[in-house]
Design brief:
The protein is an alpha+beta fold and about 60 residues long. It has a single domain, classed as Ribosomal protein L30/L7 (Ribosomal Protein L30, Chain: A). The chain is about 30% helix and about 25% strand. The protein has 2 helices and 3 strands; from the N terminus they run βαβαβ. The protein has a 3-stranded antiparallel β-sheet, with no helix packed on it. The longest helix is centred in the middle third of the chain and has 9 residues. It is globular. The relative contact order is 0.33.
């Protein structure tokens, strides 16, 4: 697991007024505030969480 793939995810829309399950997904990804960028492992479970809240988050490309 030393070479596990990583993705950078950024919260671009507010969690206010969202479904509790969507808020839980965002928190599960480690995001707390707007425009915060976190690095998560590229696993099927994190991909599913990203799919569920895709309207609120954005993948950040490494420059």
């Amino acid at each position: 697991m030393a070479d596990a793939k990583k993705m950078k995810v950024k919260l671009v829309r507010s969690m206010n007024g969202r479904l509790k399950s969507h808020q839980a997904c965002v928190r599960g990804l480690g995001l707390r505030r707007m425009h915060q960028v976190v690095e998560v492992e590229d696993t099927p479970s994190t991909r599913g969480m990203l799919n569920k809240v895709s309207y609120m988050v954005q993948l950040v490309e490494d420059a």
